[in-house]
Amino acid sequence: MSSGAKLGAGAAPVAREQAVGFHAKLEGASLWDLVQMECLARSRLAVEVAGEGGLGYLFFDAGRVVHASTLRNRGQAAALEILSWTRGTFQPTTRSWPLAPSIEMSHEALLLHAAKQRDERASNLVAFPGRGAEAALEEIEILDVDPDGFAPDGFAPDGFAPEGFAQEGSSEEEVTGVAAQPPAGLEEGKMNVRNPNFDEASGAPLAPRAESAADFPVMLRLSAQGAVLRNKGGSEELAEATAYAHRLVQLTGELLGLEDFVALECSFGSDRFIVFTENAGEVVALRPRPELSLQALRERLGL
Amino acid sequence: MTGGAPAELLVSLGTLKDVAGIMGSFVFTDDGRLVAREIPALFDDTALFEASGRLTRLRETFAAVGDHLDVAVVRFRDHKLYLKVLGGGVLCIVAEGGVNMPALRMAANLVGRRIVPALERAAQEPAPPAVAARPPALAPPGMRRFRGHAVE
What we know:
The complex is a heterodimer of chains A (303) and B (152). Chain A has 303 residues and is of the alpha+beta class. Chain A has helices spanning 31-40, 76-83, 107-123, 133-143, 147-150, 172-176, 206-209, 236-255, 295-301; strands at residues 26-30, 45-51, 54-61, 64-70, 87-92, 191-194, 218-222, 228-232, 261-268, 271-277, 283-287. Chain A folds into two domains: 1-204, no CATH class; 216-303, Beta-Lactamase. Residues 1-15, 124-159, 161-186 and 196-211 of chain A have low confidence and may be disordered. Chain B is built from three helices and seven strands; from the N terminus they run H-E-E-H-E-E-E-H-E-E. In chain B, the strands form two sheets. In chain B, strands 2-1-5-4-3 form a five-stranded antiparallel sheet. A two-stranded antiparallel ribbon of chain B has the order 6-7. Chain B is globular, with a radius of gyration of 20 Å. The model of chain B has no long low-confidence stretch (mean pLDDT 86).
């Protein structure tokens, strides 16, 4: 959700009509981005989030989420429950404020916590060979994470294809576009939100979504802790090997005083394998087709 | 280690420095034993020994999933590490980030060919026995005391 559209930051909890700012009608916005946006704006605001888990409320103040509630939970547990929802709406509400804050952690820590929970769920969902390609691709789709938060530094929204490898139908528009016409039932000032841990933008399996994905029969994305965030064509053993190899070259660099690992390219006969680190320490591994020129990728990674 | 390295190995490794940006190189056997180094003393033997062990494990890691390493390039912020698997071991080149890679590859190929015989011989030599643990250092004479009494 990088359109810059904002739901109006008000000084009072609900006096949105008097607040200076724009009313937004957004579709496909990420709930996590909306939370970050309100925190960065240091809004004092109560928001009603309607998701598949029911109704939830988030209370923002001075750059933090200070309270949350759902039918089942209060405080941090409620915030994490809401952040796990995959779709819904996000709108200001007149709900009364709590007497005292129930969430102490910063919004960044809260989102990290939610991401960790997502990773833990994801690590149980990764499909590996032997379970049928169709089922594997379906499950891989569930693991897709927010394209705009997932693809920094020129990486295309499907989260893997590197800069210089154009993708068909970039989902940038899907992510940042402001709906020209509000869909039925979408009131002014309401936003349809999606959770960044669920990419519903494409119902198609990974490969057909981007032509260049076919250039990389194996694509793996691991969290800094080694959880498989995304996997196409890789085995569990390869994910383990990637995580260990990444650690070994990091340590070797530290030993020799070289430090700050950026990327690794290995050649095995005609096969090649590339591993690199992205923001937040995520590790991406790619196995390109043997005949693919890697010049652009090498230049970008400094290899 | 370096003192015992075949001279032909050291001479060959030295020629790698013709390529601007190459800081030095070292060679280790398939079992991770450092056999030669031609690299500034800034990189001490201990670090190179340990790096050799880790890079050997890197090879083994990929081999475990069916990938037999030929060449690897590791990019760090300001430097590169270039690994070339040879008969009997691995040539490892430390270079600056902006090194001319085609020139480095060519130099590594040529040097690799030259050092294979010496490397194979070194690989066949038995590994030196592990250094026995040294006894704890004694205090200097005249200072060996226990509960106020001199102990010699």
